[in-house]
Amino acid sequence: MARTVAVLGAGVGGLMTARHLRRLLSDGDRIVVVDRSFGSVLGLSLLWVLRGWRSPGDVRVAIAPSRVPGVELMRAEILAIDPAGRTVRTSAGTLAYDALVVALGAELDPAATPGLAEALADGRAHEFYTLDGADALRRRLRPLAGGRVVFAVAGVPFKCPAAPFEAALLAADLVRADGRSHPVRFDAFTPDPMPMAVAGPAVGEALVGMLKQHEIGFHPNRALVSVDPGRREAVFADGGTEPYNVLAVVPRHRPPRVVADLGLGDGGWIPVRARTMETGAEGVWALGDVTVLTLPNGKPLPKAAVFAEGQAEVVANGVARHLGRRAPRPWFDGRGSCYIELGGHRAAKGEGDFLDESGPKVTLAEPSAAFHEEKCAQETDWLRRWTR
After folding, report:
1. Any idea what the CATH number is for the domain that residue 101 is in?
2. 185 and 310 share a domain?
3. In this predicted model, what pLDDT tens digit does every residue of 237-277 receive, in sequence order?
4. 72 forms bridges with which residues in the sheet?
5. Are 99 and 283 in contact (CB under 8 A)?
6. Which residue of 69, 70, 201, 239 is most buried, as measured by CB atoms within 10 A?
7. Quick one: what percent of the chain has pLDDT higher than 90?
8. pLDDT band at 180 (very low <50, low <70, confident <90, very high)
9. Which residues does 364 contact at the CB level (< 8 Å), separation at least 6?
10. Among candidate residues 253, 277, 295, the one where a domain is terminated
11. Are 379 and 339 in contact (CB under 8 A)?
12. Are the C-beta atoms of 219 and 187 separated by less than 8 Å?
């Protein structure tokens, strides 16, 4: 009997899941990926756009149907998900499914921080999680000859836990690249007690050391709660304010509305079983940034593409077995890695096991040109894998 699997979202997790499923399911089974555009931006390259090492055109991704043979690509807006009725309502019609994979990612929510949406709209604040935002911040920083640049996190969770600190390092590298002495001060503020807190104190302390080495101030336990663009002040939860000339913010993140409407978990994120990515709804799996996966130490798994890629095969195996097809036992190993660019085409690399029963076992290797080249190879591989 032929079955239908609906995969919502054509990012890292969704595409990799569809590819694995096509290998596991019978030829008569349908795999339908639903996405509003099948065009995206290569997230791992956004900070290179900020630094000026990539142009916007270099990092746009248009999914080529030929790269996912045997998979139907439905270009449509997702309007509602009905797990009880096993249907997804879209702008192109209703899709019935036998198994559902939700890989819709996370969205930015600048309106959740008073003053931020207005400041972003008129260029008195910046973000670097979109292509336009990263490019606009680059153009604002390049001619900067003085003043203070503040990087601030408005709330957790957010995509890529290293991003605000890596962005500060690359921004400083951009401003100082011509070798002249610029009286520009750089500061990074976070609600967490250390950078990448989930990775443990050793990694956090090493990152603080890298920031200090590059003359970037680090300010822990300070959550941005509002922005006063008229005064050019960032306001924090402790009541303090910080003046700035350039403000770069990690906006609050939220799940897509259709996911929040499911009511499966606190804040609208989808809770999943750590090793299998199963949700509380029968026949529904979720992976990537849209999920909340609780680690043995009680902290959530970071939102990062490397985990979505690792979870994709796990989800595909679970879906295939659910549909009565032969597949390996699903088991997510919790391993992941990330690169932290410091400038000068050098990067550090953090990697380890985040699902270790005693807590994440993560190490941070010293910066090198080799790690930067590894990240370049990842970028090339992804573009070749999915685009024409």
Report:
1. 3.50.50.60
2. no
3. 999 999 999 999 999 999 999 999 999 998 999 999 999 99
4. 32
5. yes
6. 70
7. 94
8. low
9. 199, 202, 203, 206, 207, 340, 348, 349, 350
10. 253
11. no
12. yes
